């Protein structure tokens, strides 16, 4: 005791390792998001850093320097793993992805899909007295594409679809498989600087296309 105060061990000797790992992975994700890196770069960097970490950790010389070097290589491996994960999530889609068959111009299509949740009604505006058009109820839902009709046959497809239906469609729920006729297209990129990029937002959810349906 000093000056009547009991000395206590400090609680700040242990670094927040998990926070460092999450930060390193986030840095790798950001680097891949705004950089032009290939998947081979991230995978080779991850393997090299992981091998270096194992060698540094297994070494018996200079324990303090070994820990610093091993920690740095471990963070590098986590950063590159985060970059590789983001690259796969953002760029890698199977050949059956329905987004590969869509364009920016809406095209008629009949798609067999499985609902991810029940249709949800969309909020209607208060209406403008200057508009002569009557606003109709609408609903929307997300679905997983199963097949697309190609002439008289069905071709297997995959991927997520955001469906917008004009009208009030009830009776369906998540897991139901339905056939829907409408127009599919890619999400539009913003036309004005600073405008919200809805296409990038949906791509972050692995959804590249949406489908407009005129009637339930």
Report what the structure shows.
The chain has 216 residues and is of the alpha+beta class. It has 4 helices and 7 strands. The protein has helices spanning 17-34, 39-58, 63-91, 198-203, and strands spanning 107-115, 120-121, 138-150, 153-156, 160-166, 177-186, 207-213. The chain has a 5-stranded mixed beta barrel. Helix 1 (17-34) crosses helix 3 and helix 2 runs antiparallel to helix 3 (63-91). The protein is elongated. It starts with 16 loop residues before the first helix and ends with a strand. The model has no long low-confidence stretch (mean pLDDT 86).
Using brief descriptors, characterize the structure shown.
216 residues, alpha+beta, 5-stranded mixed β-barrel, 4 helices, 34% helix
């Amino acid at each position: 005791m000093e000056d009547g105060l009991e000395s206590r061990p400090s609680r700040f000797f242990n670094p927040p390792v998990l926070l460092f790992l999450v930060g390193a992975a986030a840095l790798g994700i950001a680097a891949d998001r705004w950089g032009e890196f290939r998947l081979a770069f991230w995978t080779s960097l991850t393997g090299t850093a992981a091998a270096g970490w194992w060698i540094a950790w297994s070494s018996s010389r200079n324990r303090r320097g070994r820990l610093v070097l091993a920690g740095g290589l471990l963070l590098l491996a986590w950063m590159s793993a985060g970059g590789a994960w983001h690259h796969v999530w953002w760029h890698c889609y199977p050949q059956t992805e329905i987004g590969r068959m869509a364009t920016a111009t809406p095209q008629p299509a009949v798609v067999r899909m499985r609902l991810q949740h029940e249709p949800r009604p969309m909020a209607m505006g208060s209406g403008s007295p200057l508009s002569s058009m009557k606003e109709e109820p609408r609903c929307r839902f997300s679905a997983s594409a199963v097949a697309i009709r190609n002439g008289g046959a069905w071709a297997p497809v995959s991927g997520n679809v955001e469906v917008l239906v004009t009208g009030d469609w009830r009776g369906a729920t998540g897991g139901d498989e339905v056939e829907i006729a409408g127009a599919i297209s890619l999400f539009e990129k913003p036309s004005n600087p600073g405008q919200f990029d809805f296409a990038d937002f949906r791509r972050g959810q692995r959804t590249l296309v949406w489908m407009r349906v005129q009637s339930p």
